[in-house]
Design the sequence.
């Protein structure tokens, strides 16, 4: 989102960074985007690792779902007292995605793009037509991550390690 803000504000970006309201709003956008993107990535990893065997599928999905609050709650940004609403939203979304056919990676991020478009601290008249720009950029990054995951992850050993991990 920083790159997007730089492009939209051109020469005024440096001035905007001196404004506490802009910096605070940018941090809110980044943190909320992080929470949503973390959910997107866990959904993509679950689809990639998803075993055919139903008990193993449930166990793997449960183990991945447990990572969301564990990772998210490592930091609570100043604008929040907790991440409970995001944890609930993730639980509901993940429950649906783990039972459905895997979505293409570029489709998983559409809700995140809408959130970022809404929260980016740029005046509406400057960003009004940019949802597709943000979505396109997010799709490209997600497709690159997904491609790297497919090339670099050794699915079977990773799945075995996930299934053997102790649960809390």
Sequence:
């Amino acid at each position: 989102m920083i790159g997007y803000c730089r492009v939209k504000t051109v020469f005024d970006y440096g001035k905007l960074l001196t404004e506490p309201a802009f910096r605070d709003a940018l941090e809110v956008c980044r943190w909320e985007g992080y929470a949503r993107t973390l959910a997107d990535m866990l959904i993509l990893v679950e689809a990639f690792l998803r075993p055919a065997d139903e008990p193993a599928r449930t166990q793997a999905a449960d183990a991945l779902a447990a990572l969301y609050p564990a990772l998210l709650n490592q930091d609570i940004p100043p604008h929040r007292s907790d991440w409970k609403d995001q944890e609930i939203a993730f639980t509901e979304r993940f429950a649906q995605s783990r039972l459905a056919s895997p979505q293409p990676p570029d489709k998983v991020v559409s809700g995140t793009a809408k959130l970022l478009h809404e929260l980016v601290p740029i005046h509406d008249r400057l960003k009004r037509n940019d949802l597709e720009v943000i979505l396109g950029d997010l799709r490209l990054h997600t497709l690159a991550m997904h491609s790297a995951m497919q090339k670099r992850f050794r699915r079977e050993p990773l799945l075995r390690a996930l299934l053997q991990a102790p649960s809390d």
The mean pLDDT is 89. The CA atoms of residues 44 and 105 lie 7 Å apart.
